[in-house]
């Protein structure tokens, strides 16, 4: 079986993940590689149906662990239906967020516990982890300011209140990197788009 390469891009809101991935895909394709870019739930109908349950505003009574289990279930389906087949045919798969998002957001920032969220995700992914994870590190203020600049509105009180949450997410990623420094590589996401992309391409080329 040919073996592809599984890369994930992580980081807080407005870090520039989606922007970066477009550039990485173009650069890798220019090197002659077959690249598939994806994001959860990745257009997989079963995973999308699960996500609709999570996002349904009628489900106000949803327990945090139920939510974590549903995210893990959607992740499983996306992995099996989309990521693994692409890797089996030798593609480079670049995924916008993966298991580390659950660990940083729900495990750490929401307080469910990184270990607990890790254990249910282990059941979902059966140890199948990316070979490389890029952590796009940005301060909460800078990331949210980018989002707000995009949507063309002022930063409001609610954004400011949630700033502590976004900082906690960042702290979560910091802990994840400390625990798995061979897999997770930090990139300074406050640089220009061009410099971020150059850093990431250099990291990928150095590795593979
Ligand atoms: N390095 C950068 N410097 C300044 N602005 C950026 C940079 N990267 C992305 N942006 C802008 O910030 C906003 C959020 O970027 P996006 O890629 O959607 O972030 P994410 O997917 O991590 O939430 C977009 O308007 C994008 O054009
Ligand atoms: Mg995005």
TrEMBL record:
PROSITE patterns in alphabetical order: THYMIDYLATE_KINASE (PS01331)
One protein family per Pfam: Thymidylate_kin
The reaction(s) this protein catalyses: dTMP + ATP = dTDP + ADP
Span of domain Thymidylate kinase-like: 9-199
Gene Ontology terms for molecular function: dTMP kinase activity
Ribonucleoprotein keyword on record: no
Binding-site list for ATP: 11-18
InterPro entries in the cross-refs: P-loop_NTPase, Thymidylate_kin-like_dom, Thymidylate_kin_CS, Thymidylate_kinase
Record EC number: 2.7.4.9
Task of the protein: Phosphorylation of dTMP to form dTDP in both de novo and salvage pathways of dTTP synthesis.
Family (UniProt): Belongs to the thymidylate kinase family.
Protein known as: Thymidylate kinase
Species this chain originates from: Paenibacillus lignilyticus
Source lineage: Bacteria, Bacillati, Bacillota, Bacilli, Bacillales
């Amino acid at each position: 079986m040919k073996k592809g390469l599984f890369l994930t891009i992580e980081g807080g809101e407005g870090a520039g993940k989606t922007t970066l991935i477009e550039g990485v895909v173009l650069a890798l394709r220019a090197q002659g590689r077959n690249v598939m870019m994806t994001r959860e739930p990745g257009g997989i109908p079963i995973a999308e149906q699960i996500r609709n349950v999570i996002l349904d505003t009628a489900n106000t009574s949803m327990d945090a662990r139920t939510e974590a289990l549903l995210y893990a279930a959607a992740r499983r389906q996306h992995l099996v239906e989309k990521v693994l087949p692409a890797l089996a045919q030798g593609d480079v798969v670049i995924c916008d967020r993966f298991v580390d998002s659950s660990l940083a957001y729900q495990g750490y920032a929401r307080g469910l516990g990184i270990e607990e969220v890790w254990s249910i995700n282990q059941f979902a992914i059966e140890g199948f982890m990316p070979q490389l994870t890029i952590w796009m590190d940005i301060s909460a203020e800078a990331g949210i300011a980018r989002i707000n600049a995009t949507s063309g509105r002022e930063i409001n009180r609610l954004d400011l209140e949630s700033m502590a949450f976004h900082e906690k997410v960042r702290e979560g990623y910091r802990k994840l990197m400390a625990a798995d420094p061979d897999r997770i590589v930090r990139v300074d996401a406050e640089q220009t788009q061009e410099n971020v992309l150059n850093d990431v391409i250099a990291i990928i080329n150095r590795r593979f």
